[in-house]
Design brief:
Layout (H helix, E strand, L loop, with lengths): L4 E3 L2 E3 L17 H6 L10 E4 L2 E4 L3 E4 L2 E4 L5 H23 L5 H10 L1 H5 L10 H23 L2
Antiparallel strand pairs: 1-2, 3-4, 5-6
Length: 152
């Protein structure tokens, strides 16, 4: 049986872990694991655990959100903004259609682009800068939708 790993006073045994989300490893190397450090070293390429190799990455997707090395939400929000614009672009013919009511456009906007933009927003630690980025995206898409409506 492997020796439990200790980090900051909390003991964890990989053998007793029942689920993948019981632990998140943000460590640089086996040496970091042994020392209880949570700062990755520059020479890290992989971590070997029970003869399995885990590659070291700068970002990864977990439950629909992007987790980055710096643990900020900038990367995730930037991705969300791109996805929302992509959804809007795919729906542009619908939004340009003058026979569609503004209420229907609002409902579709809320259901698809806005939902994509704000997915997992409750887990973000929003700074003023990130709030502004989200607001700019939101307002620009609304302006485009309304511009099509005003042309009628």
């Amino acid at each position: 049986m492997a020796k439990p790993t200790t980090a900051k006073g909390t003991k964890f045994s990989f053998e007793k872990s029942a689920y993948a989300d019981d632990v998140a490893l943000i460590l640089g190397s086996r040496k970091d694991i042994d020392n209880g450090s949570n700062t990755p070293s520059n020479d890290t390429q992989t971590i070997t655990l029970n003869n399995d190799t885990i590659p070291f990455v700068d970002e990864f997707k977990y439950l629909g959100s992007w987790v980055t090395l710096d643990l900020t939400n900038d990367f995730d929000i930037t991705k969300r903004i791109r996805l929302a614009w992509g959804a809007y672009a795919g729906l542009r013919p619908f939004f340009q259609n003058k026979s569609v009511s503004i209420r229907a456009k609002k409902l579709i906007f809320m259901a698809i682009p806005l939902n994509i933009l704000l997915w997992v927003v409750e887990s973000w630690a929003l700074t003023k800068k990130l709030q502004k980025k989200l607001n700019v995206c939101y307002r620009n898409i609304i302006r485009r939708i309304l511009a099509y409506q005003n042309e009628a």
